[in-house]
Amino acid sequence: MSSSTDASIEDADWLHLSDDEEIRWAGRPSRFTLAPSIAVAAVVVLVGGVFEVGLERLVGGGLPWPIAYAPLGVALVGIAIAVWAYADWLRLLYVLTDEEIYVKQGLVSRDVTQVRLDRVQNTAYDQSPRERLLGYGDVRVYTAGSSTEDVTFERIPNPDRVQNTLTDLLSDQSSQRPQERGGV
């Protein structure tokens, strides 16, 4: 992760890092997850353009304004689909520090889930064949006192690396616990 990304994340008002806490990984869902929406948006914009050219050649000028501007409306719908998909991708951010897991959702409103690493009992990751081909998947985090996952990093790039980072952090945490209690 680049230092410019670190600085912008560390300065976020929703992230409460202690003095010695460090960000170990931060990310969003894979950009490949945007592809289907962008493809649909491109097709809709193309249909609007073809409709405009075809209408102009078929009828020429002098159409009532609702019909004359319909192709523009179709193209704007396509652009709206692309913007919506990007905003949906942008609203989700995962941060893994050496003490906590943060999941931030929202652009205007905000929902932040925060889980201490010392509560994490188990982790897992999974990938469908398509996700494996494109290099993304889900990492699931299970906490104490729960039989279902409490946090899921959805559609993130390199889920195996993220799970390995999390496993390393959990190992570090468990090796530090006896020392914090007075040494065993």
Automatic annotation (TrEMBL):
The chain crosses the membrane at residues 32-55, 67-87. Residues 89-166 form the YdbS-like PH domain. Keywords: Membrane, Transmembrane, Transmembrane helix. The keyword Transmembrane helix applies. It holds the Pfam family bPH_2. PANTHER family: BLL0215 PROTEIN. This is PH domain-containing protein. It comes from Natronoarchaeum philippinense. The lineage of its organism: Archaea, Methanobacteriati, Methanobacteriota, Stenosarchaea group, Halobacteria.
